[in-house]
Structures are given as structure tokens and as C-alpha cells.
Write a structure and sequence with these properties.
This protein has 615 residues and is an alpha+beta fold. The chain folds into three domains: 39-67 and 156-240, Penicillin-binding protein 2a (Domain 2) (Alpha-Beta Complex); 72-151; 244-296 and 306-483 and 495-609, Beta-lactamase. It is built from 20 helices and 20 strands.
Length: 615
């Protein structure tokens, strides 16, 4: 009997010991490992308030301010601090919302949605206007649990440079997950343009303020006299390379047109202007209540105002490409600048004649460029492709493309800007794919249109402007870029934007090409780009368009010696290069170098701005 009693005692002891161990384990888990309980206990004692920094400002190259920071107010709510007897009807009246919206904004799935916690503030209503905030502020004390959080949003002093500046928007969940705690729900982030590329420098650093709360969750003072607080650090102010007056003038000329204008300072690679048309007012996409609706309208607009044609549209360069063909031919030793070619108004290519316009005989490279002779450059291009024999066009094309890549074609130039496209340089693989039944049977006559910038070749307007800069520099360039530096901050810009690149063309071969481009303006196809007192060197182009009117193209640099500006203008469906692209480039050059367009030349400006060219 005593043995049975002893056994029962042991079982009871074991049960008590196990129960005690379970209780101790649970207590340790709650106190040491369960962060939910820790957070609840901590936030019952104090709350952490985020202090948002002001975003860095953006200035143009001359110090003109391009961005503002305007205050924006978010109404926050802490659920467990709400007074069930407060006047919700009055609050709805102040906020101009109905009772259903109030209930929807307040009701969160605290059990299943980890973003919301009853004892932590969350956004009840975002982006309050200044007027709404002013109305609410006087009565905010009547609504326990509600508080206002101040942030800044972007606005712009002008209606221009939307594609360059870009815009900010609320962070997505994927952006929060991919940035290791930098952002949280409701934060803003640069989404396009300079706002996106230089987000890290512009956003600044958040501050934190710890506030002591009583047992009812009410703020009663600073926690530990502010020893844990940190101040917000404003974002860096940025100087961009754009001349905003030149940008404004470009957008003025481009109204009611589709296309782009890009201007570069050849000696530095700094982009002076990057205009894409159609465009939009950047203030439309500032953080406001109607932003989503406006963005949808812009996105669905068939003219595609959100599309940056300066760096993302790929175009055939047309006759702008002829000087490049000439340079490569001379460097490869298959052509001499003094050689001529007979043009009878067309070039006979196997079984068809390819047209050319009436002009004096192209006795040499300079004259051929001056009058943009198609026949001359068809022939010169074939000399390159057939360098290793008529039956080895793939070898000649590889040689040709080696130079194109050195000129920055067929790949992104590396501008500090999102969505830059590479254009397209056709290769042997391209033509093997196009002519699969004649593999390696294509020859120089098959791809001859590339010699005048047609066919499969595609460039961006930025690449065309950079080609003009390379020719003006006689064989070198610095990667085009949009940022010069920072205000009161010792932050170097990317070292690649100070590195000079050289194309493998001997300097002496640029002389006849530059002389020819000067004569294009003096008495050739680009006479409409003449600027009194300035030696402009340029080349017109007219790119064939199977979908409508041809495209009007022009690139140039000026002055001839030590050029200050290189420019490319591309007007979709504008017809001949001399009709619109050339005179617009001439006006831009005059505006930049002289500071203004002469009064006796305003009629050219009026003709450009009053003309509508839309498909």
C-alpha cells in the first residue's frame, strides 16, 4: 500500500514540475522572445514619431531653382486611444468625408494584416490640403487618438522640363522590401527622371522623436529628455547641367509637334537641353488627391506625353549618318577625301535605281557632304563592306560596326538618366535572320540603304547630338550627363563623366567632313540653319517613314572652332530636314550663344511655333 502511495506522490510531483517548467518557459518566451508583447509594452510607455526631411532642391546650371518643397499633411490615428464618445459627425464635416468613408479608413484587419497595430499610429487620411489642415488644427484636441504628420511634396515653379525632372510617388511594397528599412509604407520615392536617378542624394535622412505616454496612451512629454531623439537631415541640393532658358525655348519651338531636341556642351558632355514633345506640366503629377486620375489620363493619351522621345525613341538617322560613313571609309583606307563620284540623279543598284536629288557633281568628300549626295555615299559604303571581297560582306560589316560602337552607337551611352535606349546597329546575325533562305548570300547591295542612314539602323536623338559633339571635337567625347555637382556638399559626380573617350579615327580625316558640314549651312541643304556671325557646321536629314510623312532631321555644332554647343533636332513627320529641323536648330544655337534671337529673325521663330505637325 505504501509503495502505491509513494508512486502516486512521484507522479504528482512530476506533473507539478512539468507544469512549472511550462509556465517558466512560456514566461521566458513572452518576455524574451515574443516581440509583439515587447512592442506593446514599449509603445505603452512611449511612442516613436518619424520626422521627415525636406527633399534636396534641384537647380539649373546657372542657379535657377527648378523644384520646390511644399508641406503636405497626413492625418494619423492610434486605434486604442480613440474616444468612443467623440463627435465623429463633426470630424467628418471638417474632413469633408461621409460616415462610410470614416468607418472604412478606421477599420483595419489588426488580426491578419501586420501593417496595422492598434497601439501604433497609422494613416487615416493622407495628403490633406493646407486648407483642410487649417480647419482641422483648431479642433484636433477634440479627437483623442488623431494626430497630424507633416511631410513635404514636390512642386515646380515652371511648367517645363517634366521629362528631365521626373516626379515622386508613394513607395510600393516591393520597394519597401528591397531597400532594407530605408522606406516604410506611405513614404515617397523618386519614380522617374532625376528624381529617380539621384533619389539617394535627394531624399535626405529621417529623424526620430520619442514621446512619453501615460497609462491611457496620451502624450505627456519627451522620453528621457530627448536623449534618443535624432534630427532629420535634408537631402542634398543638386546642380543639373540643363540651361533652363534654353530648355524653355526648345519646348516653345516644339509645341504642337512630336519629336525631340537634345543639346550638349561638346567640351564637357554636359546636356544643355533635352526636350521631348508632346510633354506635360510636371505639377500635374505632384502628390495630390487627383494624381492617380491625372496619371491615367496621361498614360492613355495617344500622343504619349509620358514617353521621353529624346532618349527612348529609336529613329533612322537619315543623311546625318553620311559624315560617319565618310570618316570610317577614310580611316579604313578604302576612300580618299579628294576622290569624286559621278551622280546622274540616281544610283543603279543591281535591278533598280535608287534616287538622288539634283546637285553639282560630288568632286570630293566635302562637296558630297555639302550637297548630301546619296549616290556618293552608297558607293563609299559599299567600299567598306566589300573591303575583304564582294563575297565576304560579313567581314566588312564587322569592321564597319566596330567603329559605330566606338562612336557610342548600338548601346546606351550611359547617361545618368533612366530608360535610355541603345538604338540599333544591325549585325551579320541580323541580316542572316532577315534573309534566312539566303544565308550568307546577302551582299553589300542588299544592305546599301544603311550607307545613307536608312534600313535597319536606329539611333536616339541623344546619340545623334553626341555624334555632332564628336565631330566638333574631332574625335573625342565625354559621356553625356545631367548633373554638375551639389550645393554645399563635397560629393563627386561619377568619374565616367569626366573621362574623355576617343574614337579610332585620325584627326586629319575630320577636316574635310567639318568643311563639308560648314558648307551645308553656307550654301547647301542646311542653309535655313544659318546664324549671322556664327560659323555653324551641320547636316540635314530626311528619314523615310513608311507610316506617313518623312521625318525632318538635323544635327550641328557651333562655332566651327572650339564649339560651345552640339545639337540634334528630330521632328516626326516634318518632311525635309531643311524645312523644320534645321531652322529650329539654328534658332537654338543663336539663343544659346547670343542669349537671344535677333528681332529681324523672329519671323523664323513665329513660323516654327505657329506650325502644327501631328500625324
Amino acid at each position: 500500500m505504501s509503495d502505491l502511495y509513494t508512486q502516486r506522490q512521484q507522479v504528482i510531483r512530476i506533473i507539478f514540475i512539468l507544469s512549472a517548467l511550462l509556465l517558466v518557459g512560456k514566461t521566458m518566451h513572452l518576455q524574451l522572445f515574443d516581440r509583439t508583447i515587447q512592442d506593446k509594452a514599449r509603445t505603452s510607455a512611449f511612442s516613436k514619431k518619424t520626422i521627415y526631411p525636406s527633399r534636396g532642391l534641384v537647380y539649373d546650371r546657372n542657379g535657377q531653382l527648378l523644384t520646390f518643397n511644399d508641406p503636405i499633411y497626413d492625418l494619423m490615428v492610434t486605434y486604442n486611444q480613440l474616444d468612443p464618445n467623440m463627435d465623429t459627425t463633426y470630424l467628418c464635416e471638417l474632413l469633408d468625408i461621409d460616415k462610410a468613408t470614416f468607418i472604412k479608413n478606421l477599420d483595419k484587419d489588426f488580426k491578419n494584416d501586420r501593417r496595422f497595430v492598434q497601439w501604433k499610429p497609422y494613416v487615416f487620411m493622407s495628403k490633406l490640403s493646407v486648407e483642410a489642415y487649417a480647419k482641422l488644427q483648431e479642433s484636433l484636441y477634440e479627437f483623442p487618438g488623431f494626430s497630424v504628420q507633416l511631410r513635404n511634396t514636390r512642386t515646380y515653379p515652371d511648367t517645363i522640363a517634366a521629362h528631365i525632372l521626373g516626379y515622386v510617388s508613394e513607395v510600393s511594397q516591393s520597394q519597401i522590401n528591397n531597400n532594407e528599412g530605408v522606406y516604410k509604407r506611405g513614404d515617397y520615392i523618386g519614380t522617374t527622371g532625376l528624381e529617380r536617378i539621384y533619389e539617394k542624394e535627394l531624399r535626405g535622412e529621417k529623424g526620430e522623436q520619442y514621446l512619453l505616454k501615460d497609462n491611457l496612451g496620451r502624450i505627456v512629454g519627451s522620453y528621457r529628455d530627448g536623449v534618443l531623439d535624432s534630427t532629420a537631415v535634408s537631402g542634398k541640393d543638386l546642380f543639373c547641367t540643363i540651361d533652363i532658358d534654353l530648355q524653355r525655348y526648345a519646348e516653345h519651338l516644339m509645341q504642337n509637334k512630336r519629336g525631340s531636341i537634345v543639346a550638349i556642351e561638346p567640351s564637357t558632355g554636359e546636356i544643355l537641353c533635352m526636350s521631348s514633345a508632346p510633354t506635360y506640366d510636371p505639377n500635374l503629377l505632384s502628390i495630390n488627391a487627383d494624381r492617380g486620375k491625372i496619371y491615367t489620363q496621361l498614360q492613355e493619351d495617344p500622343s504619349k506625353p509620358l514617353f521621353n522621345r529624346a532618349i527612348s525613341a529609336k529613329y533612322p538617322p537619315g543623311s546625318l549618318f553620311k559624315p560617319i560613313v565618310g570618316l570610317i571609309a577614310m580611316q579604313e583606307g578604302v576612300w580618299d577625301a579628294n576622290w569624286g563620284y559621278t551622280c546622274g540623279g540616281s544610283y543603279h543598284n543591281i535591278d533598280r535605281d535608287m534616287g538622288c536629288h539634283a546637285h553639282p557633281r560630288p568632286a570630293n568628300m566635302k562637296v558630297a557632304i555639302s550637297h548630301s549626295c546619296n549616290s556618293y555615299f552608297f558607293h563609299v559604303f559599299r567600299q567598306i563592306i566589300d573591303k575583304n571581297g564582294y563575297n565576304n560582306p560579313d567581314q566588312g560589316l564587322a569592321i564597319f560596326n566596330k567603329y559605330l560602337y566606338a562612336f557610342g552607337l548600338g548601346k546606351p551611352l550611359g547617361v545618368d538618366f533612366p530608360s535610355e535606349k541603345s538604338g540599333f546597329v544591325p549585325t551579320t546575325a541580323t541580316y542572316d535572320r532577315i534573309y534566312p533562305s539566303k544565308r550568307r548570300m546577302w551582299k553589300s547591295p542588299t544592305i546599301i540603304s544603311m550607307g545613307i542612314g536608312q534600313g535597319e539602323l536606329e539611333l536616339t536623338t541623344l546619340q545623334m547630338a553626341n555624334l555632332a559633339a564628336i565631330i566638333g571635337n574631332k574625335g573625342s567625347y565625354i559621356t553625356p550627363h545631367l548633373v554638375k555637382g551639389y550645393l554645399n556638399a563635397d560629393i563627386p559626380i561619377d568619374s565616367s563623366f569626366a573621362m574623355t573617350k576617343t574614337v579610332p579615327i585620325n584627326t586629319e580625316y575630320f577636316e574635310p567632313v567639318i568643311d563639308g558640314m560648314e558648307n551645308v549651312i553656307r550654301y547647301g541643304t542646311g542653309y535655313t540653319a544659318q546664324v549671322p556671325g556664327i560659323s555653324v557646321c551641320g547636316k540635314t536629314g530626311t528619314a523615310q517613314n513608311p507610316h506617313g510623312e518623312d521625318h525632318s532631321i538635323f544635327f550641328a555644332f557651333a562655332p566651327k572652332e572650339n564649339p560651345q554647343i552640339a545639337i540634334a533636332v528630330y521632328i516626326e513627320n516634318g518632311g525635309f530636314g531643311t524645312t523644320y529641323a534645321a531652322p529650329m536648330a539654328g534658332l537654338m544655337i543663336e539663343k544659346y550663344i547670343n542669349g537671344e534671337v535677333a528681332p529681324n529673325r523672329k519671323y523664323i521663330e513665329d513660323r516654327m511655333t505657329q506650325t502644327t505637325i501631328l500625324p
